[in-house]
Amino acid sequence: MSEVMTIGEPMVNLIADSPETFLEARTLPRQMAGAEFNVAIGVNRQGHSISYVTQLGDDWQGDLIVDYMDRTGIDTSAIRRVSGAATGFQLKVPGEGAPKVIYFRAGSAASRTTPDIVDGLDFDGVRILHVTGIFSALTEGTYATVDALVDAAKAHGVLVTFDPNPRPTLWPSRQAMIDATNRLAAKCDVFLPGLSEGRMFSGLDDPRAIADHYLDMGVGKVVIKLGDSGSAAFRRDADGARVETVVPSFVVDVVDTVGAGDGFASGVITGLLEGLDDKRLLERANAVGAIQVTSVSDSEDLPTAEQLRRFIAETPRKEVSL
Question: What share of the chain is helix, strand, coil (3-state, %, to 5)?
């Protein structure tokens, strides 16, 4: 089995060739999208193996996704194909920083995933399970599936990383999202919120207070993304004292911010696999996130290990503080 496992909803991504509206687009080049898919590409590009757990329709979109993953080297053996429900896709119009995106995923095959997909999964060789708040939010069934997968991973001694990646419109209420996210966070080993997300989920303002909130829950490491300026990692030492590491990001020209957090997560995951200390881990994660925002694609330009090494060596840094 792969070193890393993830679960999510991969989608076909149709990108308009016009920065205005879909009506003005003359072509819609096909790429792939989905937060966990982006992470999988990032992990794979950095030289590590990853398997993808999901449910796809028995349709052309599903065929495209499986074929792309197979050609890329992502393990598709845990993907279940079903009839009677379509594979989700999205339309994207590039813009300044944040693009316009229209989703076609309601009632998708992935949204109908149930916990029995966890039965029989092979955890042999898996070191990290990565989950997000997006797939968890699709339906009660997908939340239950993620919850069951986290429990199974923990039972097999697998480290669990969790990016909350909140999507408020997918939840019945803001409070339901907060409560469900915190229940999952308490089960995980590494929690990866953005600063605004950490404030929302914890009800606290200061990054150190947010970190303490989750460390006190039993989370082993809290990694907070500090916008485009950098990131911070928090953990407890053997005496229970908080240890913090703050690392600046890189100076780049921003084209499209979609996928930056996913790229960041892939840097954290591969850094954990390689045993990097917190400073080097954050440096890598910041670098992957910075590279991602220089491209209109959600994942096509995520770096290889060598590209990442050169970027870190050659790119100027910003200033950052808590």
Answer: 40, 20, 35
CB 190 within 8 A of CB 268: yes
Choosing from 75, 147, 262, 298, the catalytic residue is 262
Helices (H) and strands (E) in the chain, counts: 10, 13
Is residue 127 in a domain? yes
* CATH number, domain with residue 287: 3.40.1190.20
Q: What is the CA radius of gyration of the chain?
A: 19
Where does the pLDDT of residue 31 fall: very low under 50, low under 70, confident under 90, or very high at 90 and above? confident
pTM over 0.85? The answer is yes
Catalytic residue check, 124 = no
| Higher pLDDT among residues 185 and 64, named by residue | 185
Alpha helices in the chain, H assignment, sequence order = 35-45, 60-72, 133-137, 140-155, 174-187, 195-202, 207-217, 260-273, 278-292, 305-314
